User: Fold these one by one.
Assistant:
Number 1:
Amino acid sequence: MPGGVNSPVRAFRAVGGTPLFIESGSGCRLRDADGNELIDFVCSWGPLILGHAHPVILKAIQDAAARGTTFGAPAEAEVLLTEAIREAIPSMQMIRLVSSGTEATMSALRVARGFTGKKSIIKFEGCYHGHHDSLLTSAGSGVATFDLPDSAGVPENYSHHTISIAYNDLEAVRGLPGDVLADTAAVILEPVAANMGLVPPRPGFLEGLRQFTRERNILLIFDEVITGFRLCYGGAQKLYGIEPDLTCLGKIVGGGMPLAAYGGRAAIMERIAPLGPVYQAGTLSGNPVAASAGLATLRLLVGEDPYRSLEEKTNQFLDPVREAIREKQLPVSTATMGSMFTFFFNGALPANFREAKKSDTAAYAKFFWHCLERGVYLAPSQFETNFVGTAHSTIDLEQASNTILSALTF
């Protein structure tokens, strides 16, 4: 495997040292191949809001697998899952299930171009929308971790119709030339950026984008692969009261299995084959095991409604850390939203990718290893987001908070 891993950030190149190999996970804890037990705030990069090996989700997976792992044909679980998604996110009037967030965003852009007949896409620097060719310019997350402006292997003309703007800069979008905007099919963004570290939208940014795109007949695509069912049941669009034209989901919606979704207004989605000329397909799309895991997760989230509790737990966990940072005037800032958080080794909270890149990545690496060696597993990159889940107990969070405090003052 290139670098010994199947996804780049797992290689620990941003923090140095040898990456973890995981033997098992239960609740909020991981056990690595060397027998170390860790409090996990990576949570498989976001999906595990209910923790590792949740018994209800495991049973749903086992029951589905016993009936058959894949059919390449419609099955009840995918219908029930899409109905649950549509009920939670009414803007997704019609939905297509796929197997990864990259597939979801790639397909959403294709249908946006097919629906509008236009070519260009506007994205925001530091927002990562998967590894497909047209969007690997000024992307965040793993691309930022390895300090790559884009990716080798992508012909220049693939990104010719991709326009990158600083996140939170509404005026830069409004200031684009008229001929460019006339050929723009869609604006795509993470409504709450989580791939340059956690960077929330400024007041009025999302509302202004929605108004601007509607006036210009440009589709607005929310990439809620991370924020969907994480910030609230219904995603960032429910939290902010904004209805995009298309939405991409992943991570939590698959319950820890490979599953994602994209969807939106019926008039747009009806352009997809077999109803229309935009082709997209996948043998394992909506397979019954992954769909059953996702459905079990959404049903648990509806029943437990953990979001207020998760936000309170996250703040209680971080309050002593914030206080220590203020008292000692440390060059660290904490970004939080709901159950998501990032420690920026940066004197001020970033508002965009350029500001996030000013963070001291060497200091973050030392901080990361101090925590890991004491049993707290944070994201192995300054440019990733951490997560609190329902499985994190008060004792777990107190232990982690004390460890983080010791790392900051080390």
Number 2:
Amino acid sequence: MGMPHYFLHLRGGDLDAVDTEGMELPDLDAAREEAIGTAREIAADRLRYGRSVDLGACFVITNEVGRTLLKVPFSDAIVILPPQR
């Protein structure tokens, strides 16, 4: 029996994207880590080019039949520290 197949759909503002291919991962925790890593890459690219990051955007992780298993907001992937005095 193979690994589960997960789809990481991006939702929020101008970032809406449907994952039509998905990926095989060992479990939902691995899918969450994949979403967090990808959210960090997207945020870094946007900041690099002077664009804003919508912390309310999220990855919606679904299974092969389209059932939502987990939502991972960008705010879970990005730590914003308060200014130091």
Number 3:
Amino acid sequence: MAVIKCINCSSEFDLSSKVVLCPKCNNLLQVEFKKIPRVSWSVLRSRPFRLWRYRELIPIPKDAQIISLNEGGTPLIKLVNLVKELGVKEVYVKFDGANPTGSFKDRGMTVAISMAKYLRVPLVACASTGNTSASVAAYAARAGIKPLIIIPKGKIARGKLAQAILHGAIIISIKGSFDTALEIIIKASEKGLIYPLNSINPWRIEGQKTVVYEIIDEINVPDWIIVPVGNAGNISAIWKGLIELKKFGLINKLPRLAGIQASGAAPLVKAFREGLEKPEFIDDPKTIASAIRIGKPVNWFRALKAIRDSKGVMIDVTDEEILEAQKLLARYEGIGIEPASATSIAGLKKLREEGIIDPNDKVVAIATGHALKDPDTALLHNVTITTYEVGNIDEALSILEKIIQITN
């Protein structure tokens, strides 16, 4: 029903293969249906609103054991207080920070770990700036497989590192960037030492594409989907999911995609603006948004193709714009997201100001991770604390009365 296929040379491999990069040309692989699955929205909607509601659209072998923590089914929140500020009447935030480990990575991980279990691999591994490490560690624990994490020293949020430690991962800290860590993972994979669970693994994409199934399941096809971009796996997965839905007759039109990068880590934005065939990678990316602090995105080809095919755009936003968007969403809508997620809101604001997004468009901004993933950034940049020292209840009540007068 499906095969693993190289996106470059079109070589095909059986689903039981452990390859994650094409052994013939070293390019990325993806899972492709050989036969259109028979499924309807009515059948899908008869099941619980979780990722595996869409089982027929995720072509893992039928006898594979599904390793799940009830991921997916995350809130699609319609904004009510920020619409005037953003200048768009209908905006939704797809809050994937509500997944079991607090980020969208769980979508890809449930599928990739299920395949790792099916393939009987003894050790799974990833390079990570945080969210992937937390997800790999949790799902590997669920599957009874040992996880190994390679992180760039001093470049991972403590909340995410704590999760990987808690779930019992073996952690190797290295000098250098995420891209150095990923290079180690790829070479270790080529030697057969580990089974990699970064987004070079085609099964990760199969899980991550379900975010768009859920969006369409609830509000039909929006005009725009705005996505934070780091390693570019998520935006690639979203476009793959959309193309498949249209091919299977489950939707009849496609939205436009907007990919948003942080200004200090924006090789794909530059490539898009200048019409380059291949991005000029960045050796030392810099941004407060650690989850997308990536200078050499491995999914660059798929991401640029997705943007161009969707007649979409790629733009960058500054760290200041990211922090402001994070604060606005938290204080006006009660939605707490990590800095990388806030790029989608900052990007929406900029795209509206530039007239690219129309005020009457229906827009969905993907929020990839929870605010608690990176509490240090919130405490350092977003919080003004007024402290009162009181000696007794009467003093406390007096101060409260003054505060209420000022507030009114």
